[in-house]
Write a structure and sequence with these properties.
Elements lengths: L7 E6 L2 H10 L3 E4 L15 H13 L3 E6 L8 H11 L6 E4 L2 H10 L5 E3 L8 H9 L2 E5 L6 H13 L3 E8 L11 H4 L33 E3 L4 H6 L4 E4 L6 H21 L17 E2 L1 H4 L15 H8 L5 H27 L6 E9 L4 E7 L4 E9 L10 H8 L7 E11 L7 H15 L25 E6 L7 H4 L3 E5 L8 H10 L3 E5 L6 H13 L3 E4 L2 H10 L2 E4 L8 H11 L3 E3 L6 H5 L8 E8 L2 E5 L17 H6 L2 E6 L5 E6 L5 E5 L2 E3 L2 H5 L6 E5 L13 H12 L3 H10 L3 E2 L1 H5 L2
Parallel strand pairs: 1-2, 1-9, 2-3, 3-4, 4-5, 5-6, 6-7, 7-9, 8-10, 11-14, 15-16, 15-27, 16-17, 17-18, 18-19, 19-20, 20-21, 21-27, 26-28
Antiparallel strand pairs: 7-8, 11-12, 12-13, 21-26, 22-25, 23-24, 24-25
Helix pairs in contact: 1-2, 1-9, 4-19, 5-6, 5-18, 16-17, 17-18, 23-24
Length: 749
C-alpha cells in the first residue's frame, strides 16, 4: 500500500507583499532575507521589525519562516552579525539558511537554539557533503539543482539516517552553473554571487554564435510539475520555489497552484496535470531536464524574457491576427484582475506586531502583579519577593516601563501600559523586574526561555612575523611530471570530475609518484564520488587539496592531511576555526574574491596554514550542461557519460561589451567557462608578508589569451625567486605574462 507523506511547500518572499501572498496562498513555509547578509540583495528584503510582524502572521497561519543569511561573511562584518544572532535567538524564527562556514561555527557553538539550513550555495551533491554538514549541526540541506531524482533519493536516504531534512527546487530560475562556484558576475562587474549580488551575465545577449544563438547561456526555467510522485518516493521533505526577486502576483500564482497539486496528490494519489496557470506569470518556458537526468539542447531557450505570450500563441490556433490580438488583450486583462484582487487581499492582511495591554498592580507586603492581555488571551506573572515600603528608589511608570520595554523587540508591542493599580511609594529590587520581564517573554514566546546576549570570543590574533612562503604548482598533464624533480615546489595534480575508466591509471600514477599530491575538484556526483573515495583509500596520500567538502570530511576521517581549496569560498577567521576544530584541517586557500583590506584582518588558528593562488586561469563557472549546444552546435542532442569521458573541445563567446569567454571541455570533466585573461596578483605577497604560508601557481593545460608560450620550468624558477625577495623576478614575470588581471583583489566582494 502506498503511504503518503506530508511534503512541505517552501515559498520565496523578497518583500512584505510577496510574503503575505505566499501565506495567503497557503505555503507551509516562506524564506526571506533581512536588508543585510542575504543572497538576494536585489530583492527589497525586510527590516527586523518587519520580521517580527511576519513571524506573528505566519505562525497564526501555521506557516514557518526561514531567514536567509546565505552569503559569505567578511571579517569586519562579524560584530554586526553576532549582534543580529543575539536578537534572533529570542525570536520564533524556524530556521537560518547558511552558506558561510564561519556562520555555521557560530550557530553550532554559541546559538544552538537556531536551526541551521544549508544553502544551495554549498552545492551539496554527494554523501560526504551531507556528513560534513551533519557534523556542523545542519538540520536541513538544499540539494544541488543539477541532480536527478535517483541521486536525490540516495542523498535523502543518507540525510534521513542522520536526522537531516532535504529540500529540492521545483520551480523557478535555473542557474547554468553549479551554485556557489560561479564567479562570472564577480570577475566582470564586481558583483559576487556569493554575496547576493549576481547581475546574471549568463542571461545577457552575446554576439550571434555559429549555432545562430544570441543567448547561448540562457536556460529555461525549472519545473518539477510532472515529478511530484517521484520526489515523494525519493523521500524529499520540502519542495522549494525560487523567486525572491519576483512580484507578489507571481508568488501567489505559483504557490496556490502547487498547493492545489499537493492537495490533489494527497487526496487522490493522482497527478494534477494542468499547469497552464504557471505559464501566465513570468517564465522562460519550463524544463525538468536535470531532475529527469536528460540534460539536452531542449533545456535552452534563446530569449531570457517572459515566455507567457509566446506560450499562449503556441497552444492555441487562432484563425486571424484579430483573434490573436483579442486573446492577448484577454490575457493582460486577467493579469490585471489578479493584481487588483491580490492588492485588495494583501491590504487586509496586517504585518503589525500584536498589541499588548500591560497592567501593573500591587500593595506593600504582596508580590508585584503584572497582567498581560493580547487580543485573544491574558495571563499573570508575579515577582518572587514582596513589595516593600523601604528601598533605594520607589517604583514609578518610567522605572517599570524601562525594565519591560524589551517586550517591544518581540512579535508584540506594549500598546497600553497601566500603572494606576500600583500603590505609590513601594520598592522592588531591579533584578526582580528583570525576572518579571523574562517570565513575560517566556509566556509570549511559546514557553521558550529568554536568552541573554552571548559574547563571542574572536579568534586570537597570534603574534605575526614575516613568513618565508613556499611555492606550490598545479598541473593536469602527465607531460608535466618532470616538474617534480626540477622545482622547489609542491606539485599538485588535478583529478577529474568523472573518473570513468581512468581510475586505475590515476591510482598507479600517484603510487609511482609519492611526491605528487592530488587536487580534488568541486563537483563529484554519484559513482564519481565513490571512485574518488576508492582513490583516496588506495593511494592514501600524505597531503591533498580538495574543493569538495565531502572529500575533506573523508580525509579527516582517514587521518589524511587536507587543505581546503580556493573554490570553498573561505573568507574569514571563523571559517578557518570551523575547519580546524571540526575537521582537523591542515590549511586553507583564501578566496580570490577578496580585496587586500578584506584579507588583512583574517587570522588563522595556531599551526594552521594559509594559502593563496597568485597566478591561474580564472574558472568563471562549471556546468553540468553542455555549453557547446548553443555555441558551435553538437551532433549529440543529450549530454551523456560518454560525452563527459571523451569530449575535448574549446570555443568562445563574446558579449556586447566585447568581452570574450572561453568554453573549455576536457576528457573526464564538466564544461567550464574560462576568463580570457589570467589572474596574476604579485602585490599580495608584499602586502601580506606575515599571513600566507604558501602561494600557488596554476599551470594546467588551459589555453587563454596569454600572448607568449611560456616555459613552465622558467616560470616556476622566477616565482620562487620572487618569493625569496627578488623584485627583479617580479618585474620579469609581469613582463612575461601578459595580459593579466587582478580586478577581484582591487574590488573585493
Amino acid at each position: 500500500m502506498y503511504v503518503k507523506r506530508k511534503i512541505e511547500l517552501l515559498a520565496p518572499g523578497g518583500d512584505t507583499d510577496s510574503i503575505k501572498a505566499a501565506i495567503l496562498a497557503g505555503a507551509d513555509a516562506v524564506y526571506c532575507g533581512l536588508n543585510k547578509f542575504n543572497a538576494r540583495n536585489r530583492a527589497s528584503n525586510i527590516s527586523f521589525d518587519d520580521l517580527q510582524g511576519i513571524l506573528h502572521l505566519a505562525h497564526k497561519h501555521s506557516c514557518m519562516v526561514f531567514l536567509t543569511l546565505n552569503i559569505v561573511i567578511v571579517e569586519t562584518e562579524f560584530p554586526a552579525l553576532i549582534a543580529l544572532l543575539n536578537r534572533l535567538v529570542n525570536t520564533s524564527i524556524d530556521g537560518i539558511i547558511v552558506q558561510d562556514l564561519g556562520l555555521f561555527f557560530l550557530l553550532s557553538k554559541y546559538f544552538k537554539s537556531l536551526k541551521i539550513h544549508a544553502s544551495t550555495q554549498l552545492t551539496t551533491h554527494n554523501e560526504g557533503q551531507i556528513l560534513f554538514l551533519n557534523k556542523l549541526n545542519a538540520s536541513r540541506v538544499n540539494l544541488s539543482r543539477e541532480l536527478n531524482i535517483s541521486e536525490i533519493k540516495d542523498l535523502t536516504l543518507v540525510a534521513h539516517q542522520h536526522g537531516i531534512l532535504t529540500e529540492v527546487f521545483v520551480h523557478g530560475s535555473y542557474c547554468i552553473s553549479f551554485s556557489g562556484i560561479c564567479y562570472l558576475s564577480s570577475v566582470h562587474g564586481g558583483n559576487s554571487g556569493n554575496r547576493g549580488r549576481c547581475s546574471q551575465p549568463c542571461r545577457d545577449r552575446y554576439l550571434t554564435t555559429s549555432a545562430g544563438k544570441d543567448y547561448p547561456l540562457n536556460l529555461k526555467d525549472n519545473s518539477a510539475w510532472s515529478d511530484l510522485r517521484e520526489l515523494s518516493d525519493a523521500g524529499v521533505d520540502s519542495l522549494k520555489i525560487e523567486g525572491r526577486i519576483k512580484s507578489s502576483d507571481y508568488v501567489y500564482t505559483v504557490v496556490i497552484n502547487w498547493i492545489q497539486k499537493l492537495q490533489y496528490f494527497d487526496s487522490q494519489d493522482e497527478r494534477l496535470k494542468d499547469n497552464v496557470e504557471l505559464y501566465k506569470v513570468f517564465n522562460r518556458d519550463f524544463s525538468n531536464g536535470f531532475l529527469r537526468g536528460t540534460i539536452q539542447k531542449g533545456m535552452f531557450i534563446d530569449n531570457p524574457r517572459d515566455h507567457s505570450i509566446q506560450h499562449l500563441s503556441e497552444i492555441n490556433s487562432y484563425a486571424s491576427a484579430a483573434e490573436l490580438e483579442l486573446a492577448h488583450l484577454k490575457f493582460y486583462a486577467e493579469k490585471e484582475d489578479l493584481k487588483a484582487f491580490l492588492e485588495n487581499e494583501l491590504q487586509q492582511i496586517s504585518l503589525a506586531k500584536e498589541p499588548l495591554t500591560v497592567d501593573i498592580s500591587g500593595e506593600n507586603g504582596s508580590p508585584l502583579k503584572v497582567t498581560v492581555r493580547t487580543s485573544d488571551r491574558s495571563f499573570y506573572v508575579f515577582s518572587d519577593v514582596n513589595l516593600d515600603i523601604k528601598g533605594t528608589e520607589p517604583l514609578n511608570y518610567k522605572i517599570v516601563f524601562n525594565r519591560l520595554k524589551a517586550i517591544n523587540e518581540t512579535e508584540y508591542f506594549i500598546a497600553e501600559f497601566v500603572i494606576k493599580n500600583l500603590r505609590s511609594g513601594v520598592y522592588l529590587p531591579f533584578k526582580e523586574l528583570t525576572l518579571i520581564k523574562r517570565k513575560i517573554l517566556f509566556n509570549l514566546n511559546g514557553s521558550k526561555e529568554f536568552v541573554d546576549p552571548v559574547v563571542v570570543p574572536y579568534p586570537e590574533k597570534s603574534h605575526r612575523t614575516v613568513i618565508k612562503p613556499s611555492l606550490s604548482v598545479l598541473i593536469s598533464s602527465i607531460k608535466d611530471l618532470h616538474l617534480l624533480g626540477e622545482c622547489y615546489a609542491d606539485v599538485f595534480y588535478q583529478l577529474p570530475e568523472s573518473f570513468g575508466i581512468e581510475l586505475s591509471g590515476l591510482i598507479s600514477l600517484f603510487l609511482e609518484n609519492r611526491l605528487l599530491y592530488p587536487w580534488f575538484p568541486s563537483v563529484l556526483i554519484g559513482e564519481d564520488y565513490t571512485a574518488a573515495l576508492e582513490f583516496l583509500k588506495l593511494v592514501n596520500p600524505d597531503l591533498i587539496v580538495t574543493n569538495n567538502t565531502g572529500i575533506g570530511y573523508e580525509a579527516y576521517k582517514m587521518g589524511i592531511k587536507w587543505i581546503a581549496g580556493p573554490f570553498l569560498n573561505i573568507v574569514n577567521s571563523f571559517s578557518l576555526l570551523t575547519l580546524k576544530e571540526n575537521f582537523n584541517c591542515y590549511g586553507a586557500f583564501i578566496s580570490n574574491e577578496l580585496s587586500r583590506s578584506q584579507i588583512h584582518g583574517i587570522s588563522p588558528p595556531e599551526g594552521f596554514k594559509l594559502y593563496y593562488s597568485i597566478y591561474h586561469p580564472v574558472v568563471l563557472m562549471t556546468s553540468r550542461q553542455c555549453l557547446f549546444h548553443q555555441v558551435t552546435g553538437c551532433e549529440n542532442n543529450e549530454i551523456t557519460d560518454f560525452c563527459i569521458q571523451n569530449c575535448e573541445k574549446s570555443s568562445s563567446i563574446t558579449n556586447l561589451k566585447g568581452e570574450s569567454f572561453i568554453i573549455h571541455k576536457t576528457k573526464g570533466n564538466y564544461h567550464n567557462l574560462i576568463n580570457e585573461i589570467n589572474f596574476l596578483n604579485t602585490a599580495v605577497v608584499t602586502d601580506e608578508p606575515k599571513l600566507f604560508t604558501g602561494f600557488m601557481i596554476d599551470l594546467r593545460e588551459i589555453k587563454t589569451k596569454i600572448q607568449n608560450e611560456i616555459d613552465k620550468s622558467l616560470l616556476i624558477q622566477l616565482f620562487n625567486s620572487f618569493l625569496n625577495g627578488d623584485q627583479g623576478a617580479r618585474d620579469e614575470l609581469e613582463q612575461m605574462i601578459q595580459p593579466t588581471t587582478s580586478t577581484q583583489y582591487l574590488k573585493g566582494i
